[in-house]
Amino acid sequence: MARIFRQTYTKPLSGGADVFRRGGKEFTRFKDTHGKVRVAPLSKDGKNVIRKTSKWYVEYRDAGGMIKRVAGYTDRKATEQYASELERTAEHVRSGYKPKEHEQLGRPLPEHIEDFSQYLGSKGNTKDYVSQTVKRVRQVFDNCGYLFWSDITASQIMNCIAAINYRGKNLSTQTFNYYLQSVKQFCRWMVQDRRAGESPVEHLKKVTVVPTFERRAATPDEVRILLEAAEAAPKHFGLTGHERAMLYRFAAETGLRAKEIRTLRVSSFDFGDCVVMTPAGYTKNKDKIAQPLRKETVPVLEEFFRSKMPNAPAFKMPSKYNVARMLKADLLNTGIPYFDDLNRKFDFHSLRHTFITTLRSAPTRVAQSLARHRSSKMTDRYTHIGLVDERAVIEESIPDYSLPSSQERNVATGTDVVVALDDYNKPDNKPSKKLDGDMVQPTEIKRVKSEMKDGDTGFLIRRSQVRVLPGVVHK
Predict the structure, then answer these.
(1) Which of 97, 118, 148 finishes a domain?
(2) Residues 225, 342: one domain?
(3) Which of 107, 170, 181, 234 has a CA that sits 20 to 30 A from residue 299's CA?
(4) Does 475 score more than 50 pLDDT?
(5) Residue 475: inside a domain, yes or no?
């Protein structure tokens, strides 16, 4: 029979606590966080208060006869039902009956991972995504030595991911999170497919990302220099200089990623509407896109595709590992550094940064749509602001404080009004003659007159404000 109980813990007895005896034992009376009066016993030495947890616990014997203690709920009846379910499951296993969940947990992890791979493929994910996700899960479980679902523990998962090396180096914080995300995705699928009761890693959180490098956006002149250098360079990485120059120009003018460009066919271009269509399954957000083209670029692309069949790849592309190396080789002939003085990299993906940065003066929603980002925050990350941009804003926005003030200009043009005292000698404090421009309340005139001293002959009206002018002579 399972035992339902609440665990006890102690807290120091506060000074001035209300202590009393009942049945030969000491108790204390206090108010909890909700303001309710509570009574709790004291420890034998009388220095600590014995409290009970708000959550109930279950103690039972599992199928192997071992005593297990698990947390229940704050509600006693719900915990009792949970205890009955635990006992019933243990009895089923002892009698030879295995529910679906226990039957699945008896299978080795490689079989579950294979089913998980098929599940990812059925959702329309690309082969590269499925392969990379499954590879990460297998690598983590192999490093941990896991064979069955019951072997998985959260702390060991984090340690095993941290121990993974890539080319002799530890994983970056960004890649660490990718591995953790893949493992959590697999465990979440196990629960959703009713193969497990709960995920042992669901509570794990990603580590704080520390970037190992930053990309930078190229200036328009740097892009032109790169295109000219690539055009004049010989063939390498399987592409002629003209093919590389067209590839760089297209990436800088559309902001398409290397993987998206790789999927394009000649038939993907609609030169009548000046757009290029990207298949839905090969974009990062899995949406089909129609990216506008510059009108000046359309005839250049038409000439570039003239000898190609409609189903032929639009651009020749080296392997994903050589795309950055190809651009780096072309930069050697330009004098443009691959890493600048601030350790910011200029690789192929920097052409996308360049495209988005050129949109910085466009409306936010338009720039976000062209960048194909789900949030404007991501678009801001790709937008690089340089000293030239900051200087232009400073020149345009900050006023020239060296110019004379409006008061000085008014004095220079004679727009201030100097009023003699005898002009305000009437009881109603109204001037004997109408003053041009400024209208002053009589109460303000009365206040200033009360501040005047002997020898003050007038006061100055400037932008509806009045102040005393010592020794002013009315002219």
Answers:
(1) 97
(2) yes
(3) 234
(4) no
(5) no
Between 96 and 31, the higher pLDDT residue: 31
Given the structure tokens 């003209």, which residue do they identify?
A: 242
More confident residue, 437 or 160: 160
Domain range enclosing 410: 406-470
Identify the burial level of 255 via C-beta atoms within 10 angstroms of its C-beta, where 0-12 means exposed, 13-18 middle and 19 or more buried: buried
Give the CA-trace dihedral at 390, 395, 398, 400, to 10 degrees.
150
Q: What pTM, to 2 d.p., does this model score?
A: 0.52
d(CA 239, CA 246): 11
401 part of a folded domain: no
Residues 80 and 22 in one domain: yes
Give pLDDT tens digits for 364-403. Answer: 888 888 877 777 777 766 776 666 655 665 566 556 555 5
CB 68, CB 61: distance < 8 Å: yes
Burial of 6 (0-12, 13-18, 19+ CB in 10 A): middle
Domain tally for the chain? 4
Average pLDDT of the segment spanning 1-5: 87
Strands 214-215 and 344-345: parallel
The amino acid sitting at 229 is A
| Nearest one of 150, 138, 149 to 113, comparing CA atoms | 138
Query: Tokens representing 116?
Result: 């998980």
CATH number at 260 reads: 1.10.443.10
